[in-house]
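Protein 1 of 2
SEQ + STRUCT:
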Amino acid sequence: MNLTKMHLPPPRPQQTQPIRRSLTATAAASLIAILALTGCGGSKAEKASQTAVKVNKEEITVHQINFVMQRQQGLKPEQAEAASKQILERLIDQELAVQKAAELKLDRDPSVVQQIENAKREILARAYVDRIGETVAKPSAAELSQYYNAKPALFKDRRIFSLQEISIEAKPEQAQQIRAKLQAAKSMAEFADYLKANEFRFTGNQAVRAAEQLPMAGLDAIAAMKDGDSAVSQTATGLNVLFLVSSRLQPVAEPQARQAIETFLSNQRKGELVQKDIKALRTAAQIQYVGKFKEGAAEPAQAAAPAAPPPTSSTNDLDASAISKGMGIKQ
């Protein structure tokens, strides 16, 4: 199991003719979004004034450039002019590729048509999610403070953890023996020597992680561990051992945490609202599974996994799958 950091990201008018502007799903998504802007009405003079360049008989407009620029994160105002020129050159290359694809009749290729339709569905679904999200109220100052105080391991008592992890292949009847040796071992190195001597197959890794980079489900349990403690969890092939080598306190004050908390709570509320709305849509819709999908159809909603239990000793059971997932909150 890897402890690597995991990072917690407009529809277009209906087309009356086949779209011919995509070689890949990504290009299709960009194209459809661009067409949504350039398809708006306006006078001929207004359209002409927005033309940035003509590529054969096709135009690339300022709207298209601005559309791409709006998605350039971290772009400073003084970089805008240079960036717009670079974007224009990329759009020219894209337009030339699109024109050649149309000449080769790739817009009729079944694979390309399917990619375009998939891109359209993704864009429309994302637009729906964004529209629903706009109705969510921002958390109040009291709610931000309440969340801050409720998560001391994430803020007031925030620590930087140096962790070692070992995944062991073992039979169920060997688990108790391994746990007992782990309890008696003075260090992870001593425990690893035991595994080698008894010919257990295992893999290990180590990492330094801040509290916000650990899984929400297991954060409280890991935060309750002291330096030198270990946690063990059952896996499909054996056991997973997490060893806390050392840690250091590095708290985050409430003013510095407010933006991160607001973003997290807002996203959480948006997700809950979308799930609620989708559930209502499913209830109102007529959904009929056909053929092999008719039997054993999946339930529309899955129960959320319970949070990891609080620690009761130096060796605690933790959800192994949770250890490799980041909670998605950055400071």
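Protein 2 of 2
SEQ + STRUCT:
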Amino acid sequence: MAKRIVVLGAGESGSGAAILAKEKGFDVFVSDCGTISEPYRALLDQNGVQWEDGKHSEELILNADEVIKSPGIPLTAPLIQKLQAQGTPIISEIEFAARYTNAKMICITGSNGKTTTTSLIFYILKQAGLNVGLAGNIGNSLALQVAHENHDYYVIELSSFQLDNMYDFKADIAILLNITPDHLDRYDYQFQNYVDAKFRITRNQTKEDSFIYWAEDPVIDRCLRTLRVNATLYPYGFTQPNPLPVGEDELALKGRHNVLNSMAATIAANVVGIKKEVIRESLMTFQGVEHRLQYVATVRGVRYINDSKATNVNSCWYALESMTTPTVLILGGKDKGNDYSEIDELVKQKCHTLIFMGLHNEKLREHFGKLVESQKSKVESPIQIIDTDNLHDAVQAAYHAAKEGDTVLLSPCCASFDLFKSYEDRGEQFMKAVREL
């Protein structure tokens, strides 16, 4: 009798895992408590996979031999707790897919810069003519690519949620960009729990493998003093030998943070054995990532920048740090246990207006309200705060607040799930609203 695999969640990763499991001869069932979107329904139907949506039927789930869990489902969910209590193995799609490929795995994690660095490494490898797939949080699911394609390399962006349920998986090249507080609502508001999840990227590595990390990150530095990492270490940063084959001013990606991302990508490409000329050309021609400091338009002399991918405070810090003109900052969304004090100094230096756009702006009002009060006796024009509860009104408010030569920056600091389907949806709506001005 075929081993029964239940897949919880039928998005990109879940659907891909189900297709691969079906192809490998398992008895497969997919369950999603939300609505499965039409393309994924069609994919499951075409491959003869049984599914349900709008509910989790426990009698069809608790009899699983193994469960593949969507990264979006927390370990505290009652159904997950029941599965754990009865000893059912729960793994990630990445863990499952890796069982069926001998491809080299280049894996990238960190609180910020993951998508940019992952995309840049993928671009370099493609430019070098390698047979490479892009997976994880971007691209098609790893499992679907393993089922239908046969790549020699995979460049994989990994979130802490994906790392949580990986056990036997091994990265040939692991990259840890940085660690700052994020997703604390999923980690019992304990920063160390989140740190531990990030360091799982080094799990199962041997001396033949590579661990590339930002040497100047204080959290990474502290952990490496006590944690045993078996891989060969490749530190990078401004205090390390510069690996870049081009000058910083020649990089296609601008900003101090992107210099670091480019360093990490360069070292990964060197480890793979890519020629210096290919790396150099790629660093100079890479086009960047949607929703990450993406130029939208200039309206009446005001530049509008879409940084919807900034779903945590540190990511917003990087965006503000790269601003060279007076800035109107739009922020807000689903708070994940954020500490906004990290951006206080940059807000004071660069912003003349803050616009909140969320269903629950209380925490933002409280924090930045105090900041403005502390300014009132010290500066001639304290920061203006405008409160809205939707993106359209926020863009309109920014239009009226901005002066010629300013930048309007959407860099929300927060998750998108109060008003939007995803950060991509938020970014698309922002760009649409700007183009309608």
